[in-house]
Every structure is written in structure tokens, then in C-alpha cells.
């Protein structure tokens, strides 16, 4: 199986600043690493993902980094805004026919400078 | 956008009760999943299925059964519900054979309380 550790559990970040969430995984066969955002009362939705053939991916204010040697991947929210308030989950899988294993989640709380 | 519908949205039962959670997806996805969400634990996989009649055991299967009757329908069964099964349950579907690959489409969840 797979184990995914996610930190921190709560992240308070000033609006306009960058927020960083870190995850580690155990299974060296894992090759797919998505991030899901869950707003209050809603279901989780995919916001960005990265595969093991990449080290960095960026889209719409989000950056994902992957360090396969360290078995570590991270999400960076640039210019955090009130709309970024949500739970964020990292996940990992060994690809096709393997189910996703999720981290325990990070609650991002933007606050005024 | 893929459509995954769960029912009921809320359910209250007593310890030892029999509960069935239903999930239907209408996007011809082959893969379906049941997760439970608990504070501090994130989303944990209970059971999943590759197609009608197929069942795979997830990470926290104890106390749960599941059945995939058709490509569209996936059921989660709690035959002797316990308070530890009080949780928010999410069904999801995916189709790794498409360009969206392993992307999960979640239903809106079923909140289950076992008294």
C-alpha cells in the first residue's frame, strides 16, 4: 500500500503571501500526485496534479514541486486570497488501476496583513 | 463535468442498524470508490471497483461491504453499524483510460450518524 503524510494541518497565511503545504510518501512506485481542494460543505475537486516524469508544474497561481529522491511533493499557493480558504489534500498513487491514497489535509486560513 | 450522485445526503441510525449508501455515476466511468472523511484522517479508502461485479478492498474495509451492480451503481453496506462509523462518506468515479486519467469526480457526500 501507500502512506501519505501531510503537514501542516492548519496554515494561517497573510493575504498576498505564499502558502506552502508539504507531503511525503512511502511507495517508490507511486507516480501520480494530485492535489484536491475542498471548500466548506462541498466535495473535493482536483486543482493541480504532477506525474513522476516532472519536477515542477504551475497553473493559475499554483505551483507543485516533486522530489522523487526524497519522496516529497509540495503545493505552493502564490498570492493567497480569501477565495483560497479551504481544505487541501495531497494524494499519491502508483498510476493506472491503483487507487489514490490521501494525506490528512491542510486547512488554509487567509488573514489580513 | 462528471456527475456522481449519492443518496441519502444524511442518515441517522442506531448501533447495530443496517445501512445502505448508494452512488450512481452517469459518465460511463469504469472505476468507482468509497471514501470516508474524518477530521485528522483526511479521506480514507474503504472499497473500490473496476467495473460491474468487481470489488477491491481498500485501506479501511472492516465493518463495510460493497457491491457494484452495474457500471453506474456502487453501494456501500453497513450491516451492523457502530458509532465509529459515524463519518462523511464520499463516492467517486474515474476513468484512467481517458485523458483525464486518474482524476476523481466526487459526489456531494453522505453524512452518516450512528447513535
Mean pLDDT level of chain B: 92
Main sheet makeup of chain B = 7 strands, mixed
Helices and strands of chain A, in order, run as: EEEEEEEEEEE
The average pLDDT of chain A is 94
Number of helices of chain A: 0
> How many DSSP helices of chain B?
0
Largest sheet, strands/sense/barrel of chain A: 6 strands, mixed
- Termini Cα gap of chain B: 36 Å
Assign an overall shape of chain B: globular
Strand content of chain B: over 45%
- Uncertain stretches of chain B: none
Percent in strands of chain A: over 45%
How would you characterize the overall build of this protein?
The complex is a heterodimer of chains A (about 110) and B (about 120). Chain A is mainly beta. Chain A is about 0% helix and about 55% strand. In chain A, strands 2, 4, 5, 9, 10 and 11 form a 6-stranded mixed β-sheet that branches. Chain A has a 5-stranded antiparallel β-sheet with strand order 1-3-8-7-6, with no helix packed on it. Chain A is globular. The mean pLDDT of chain A is about 95. In chain B, the strands form 2 sheets. In chain B, strands 2, 4, 5, 6, 9, 10 and 11 form a 7-stranded mixed β-sheet that branches. Helix content of chain B is about 0%, strand content about 50%. Classes of the chains: A mainly beta (about 110), B mainly beta (about 120). The interface of A and B includes residues 49, 97 and 99 of A.
What would you say about this model in short?
Helix content of chain A is 0%, strand content 54%. Chain A is mainly beta and 113 residues long.
Q: Keywords, please?
A:
A: 113 residues; mainly beta; 5-stranded antiparallel beta sheet; B: 115 residues; 7-stranded mixed beta sheet; 4-stranded antiparallel beta sheet
Amino acid at each position: 500500500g501507500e502512506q501519505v503524510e501531510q503537514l501542516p494541518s492548519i496554515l494561517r497565511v497573510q493575504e498576498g503571501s505564499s502558502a506552502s503545504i508539504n507531503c511525503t510518501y512511502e511507495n517508490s512506485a507511486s507516480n501520480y500526485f494530485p492535489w484536491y481542494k475542498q471548500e466548506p460543505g462541498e466535495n473535493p475537486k482536483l486543482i493541480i496534479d504532477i506525474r513522476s516524469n516532472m519536477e515542477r508544474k504551475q497553473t493559475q497561481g499554483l505551483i507543485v514541486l516533486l522530489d522523487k529522491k526524497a519522496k516529497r511533493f509540495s503545493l505552493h499557493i502564490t498570492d493567497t486570497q480569501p477565495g483560497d480558504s479551504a481544505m487541501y489534500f495531497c494524494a499519491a498513487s502508483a498510476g493506472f488501476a491503483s487507487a489514490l491514497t490521501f494525506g490528512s489535509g491542510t486547512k488554509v486560513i487567509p488573514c489580513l496583513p | 463535468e462528471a456527475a456522481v450522485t449519492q443518496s441519502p445526503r444524511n442518515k441517522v441510525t442506531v448501533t447495530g442498524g443496517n445501512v445502505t449508501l448508494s452512488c450512481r455515476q452517469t459518465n460511463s466511468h469504469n472505476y468507482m470508490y468509497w471514501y470516508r472523511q474524518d477530521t485528522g484522517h483526511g479521506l480514507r479508502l474503504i472499497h473500490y471497483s473496476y467495473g460491474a461485479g468487481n470489488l477491491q478492498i481498500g485501506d479501511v474495509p472492516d465493518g463495510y461491504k460493497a457491491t457494484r451492480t452495474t457500471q453506474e451503481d456502487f453501494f456501500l453496506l453497513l450491516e451492523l453499524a457502530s458509532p465509529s462509523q459515524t463519518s462523511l462518506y464520499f463516492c467517486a468515479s474515474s476513468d484512467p483510460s481517458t485523458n483525464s486519467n486518474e482524476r476523481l469526480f466526487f459526489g456531494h457526500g453522505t453524512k452518516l450518524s450512528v447513535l
